[in-house]
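About this split. The held-out portion is used to measure sequence recovery: a designer receives only the structure tokens and must propose an amino acid at every position. Recovery is the fraction of positions where the proposal matches the reference. Here is one held-out target exactly as it appears in the evaluation file.
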């Protein structure tokens, strides 16, 4: 294991708290000797040693399966038996004489729980999840195939299968075997896979389960950003009740007084959200620092990769390899390139050469390609990271209807992309039609070398124009009791309709088009656009000596 994996494992271990087991043999009074045994006491003890909360459930009816499927969505790790025998349920009146349908207990209940987890809008495609099938069966690959085929028929995207595993980019389902309790003449546990020894590594005893789960979860989360998120969430979990105490019910009266004094009482909710976000930010700063993304962590992560991208400097080849990058982390770009330049005997490093190195650094930063890799798909990852830094709406629930305010980016059916620069205070408490201010965003071609300022979730490059003569106003009408302009859900798209489409058919002073909501920018990015535009408006034009003007810029 690498140093980076070890530190990632420690972070993952601190994060993981609750493990849910679903097994029909849980809490059985008689412990049978066989492949399907489940010793709840020893299971819970094994996880208690690792300071994990272990919840064990024994389903008896199909209704229990329904409840447990909902519960499994909330668990950090879900472990399910493959064969779940349920009690016979009463036959509805009038159906006594009908032939009973024989249900094979191997698979259907487990698959139902897995489907519920993966189809959920939060615990499914939108999240990372590790699920284990812990079974007494010996046909592990057949179980894998059954799971794969079932999920494939349900159109689960990007589905793959490996040895005793089914996965998507964010979900792993592992099939592992319960130990066989039968012993030989010497008292040693018999191997249940004598004829298939490759499966022996899939047999996990109760004591082995906690470390196995931790290793497999760490394989999913061992990354710089994911480690940072896990560590941050651990800080929040550990301070949950501190936050509840801080925002105690004794503050309800001051909050109400503050709310009543606001011009619009609906603003109190947004104000409280901002205050709480500031508290979380402060909590992370004071309790976390740079633990998971220190220079050592970054260098340890570099050691897990292989960097080979080359660049040409003064006719010489310089490789951005692991050593180069770690030196860059510890010092700077000039130190990294100078060390390699000397090592390769490219000549003395003069002041002019240092200037060349600096120019190369600026060239790298202006390059539209990734400076570290030319791998296929790397630009898509650059776009994903850009979305993470700029888009406020990345966490917007699909059911939440967006409203028109500062930072909203819309696309007209005729006029292209626009970003709203209307201040928030002017986007609420609207009684009649109101003009909203917009600046244009030019969509660039994929191969364009022009500068761009934003990217959409689907990778469209948008170039902002801050010139005052490009400013556009569009009238909208408030379409809800709160005095704001909200979009309408039209065939899965959120559409803003100008004011004449909201009860004013005789007024067509705007172009006859509607506007699709694309995304919401983060607050500070949106405010910067408005500030820059205000600065553009405040430029002072003077008549002066052209000779002097050119020398003053």
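Reference sequence for scoring:
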């Amino acid at each position: 294991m690498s140093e980076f994996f070890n530190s990632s494992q420690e972070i993952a271990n601190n994060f993981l708290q609750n493990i849910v087991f679903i097994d029909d043999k849980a809490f059985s009074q008689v412990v049978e000797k066989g492949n399907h045994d489940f010793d709840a006491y020893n299971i819970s003890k094994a996880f208690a040693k690792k300071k994990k909360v272990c919840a064990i459930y024994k389903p008896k009816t199909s209704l229990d399966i329904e409840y447990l499927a909902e519960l499994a969505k909330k668990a950090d790790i879900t472990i399910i038996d493959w064969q779940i025998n349920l009690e016979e349920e009463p036959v509805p009146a009038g159906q006594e004489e009908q032939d009973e349908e024989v249900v094979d207990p191997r698979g259907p209940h487990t698959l139902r729980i897995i489907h519920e987890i993966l189809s959920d809008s939060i615990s499914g495609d939108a999240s990372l999840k590790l699920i284990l099938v812990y079974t007494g069966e010996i046909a592990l690959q057949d179980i894998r195939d059954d799971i794969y085929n079932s999920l494939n028929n349900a159109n689960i995207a990007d589905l793959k299968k490996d040895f005793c595993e089914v996965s998507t980019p964010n979900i792993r389902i592992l099939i592992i075997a319960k130990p066989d309790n039968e012993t030989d003449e010497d008292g040693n546990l018999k191997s249940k896979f004598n004829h298939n020894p490759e499966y022996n590594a899939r047999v996990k005893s109760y004591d082995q389960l906690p470390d196995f789960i931790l290793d497999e979860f760490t394989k999913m989360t061992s990354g710089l950003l994911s480690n940072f998120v896990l560590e941050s969430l651990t800080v929040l979990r550990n301070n949950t009740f501190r936050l509840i105490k801080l925002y105690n019910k004794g503050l309800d009266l001051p909050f109400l007084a503050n709310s009543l004094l606001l011009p619009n009482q609906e603003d109190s909710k947004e104000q409280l959200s901002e205050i709480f976000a500031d508290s979380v930010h402060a909590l992370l700063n004071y309790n976390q620092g740079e633990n998971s993304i220190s220079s050592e962590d970054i260098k340890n992560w570099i050691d897990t990769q292989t960097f080979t991208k080359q660049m040409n400097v003064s006719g010489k080849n310089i490789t951005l390899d692991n050593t180069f990058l770690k030196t860059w982390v510890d010092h700077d770009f000039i130190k990294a390139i100078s060390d390699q330049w000397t090592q390769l005997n490219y000549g003395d490093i003069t002041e002019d050469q240092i200037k060349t190195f600096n120019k190369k650094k600026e060239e790298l930063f202006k390059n539209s390609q990734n400076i570290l890799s030319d791998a296929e798909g790397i630009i898509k990852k650059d776009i994903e990271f850009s979305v993470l830094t700029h888009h406020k709406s990345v966490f917007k629930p699909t059911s939440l209807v967006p409203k028109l305010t500062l930072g909203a980016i819309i696309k007209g059916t005729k006029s292209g992309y626009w970003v709203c620069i209307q201040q928030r205070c002017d986007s609420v408490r609207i009684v009649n039609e109101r003009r909203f201010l917009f600046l244009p965003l030019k969509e660039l071609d994929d191969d364009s070398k022009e500068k761009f300022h934003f990217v959409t979730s689907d990778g469209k490059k948008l170039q902002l124009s801050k010139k005052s003569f490009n400013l556009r106003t569009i009238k909208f009408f408030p379409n809800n009791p709160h005095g704001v302009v909200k979009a309408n859900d039209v065939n899965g798209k959120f559409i803003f309709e100008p004011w004449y489409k909201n009860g004013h058919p005789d007024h067509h002073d705007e172009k006859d088009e509607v506007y699709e909501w694309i995304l919401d920018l983060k607050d500070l990015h949106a405010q910067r656009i408005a500030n820059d535009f205000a600065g553009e408006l405040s430029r002072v034009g003077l008549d002066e000596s052209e000779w002097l003007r050119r020398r003053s810029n």
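Annotator remark: The longest helix spans residues 267-287.
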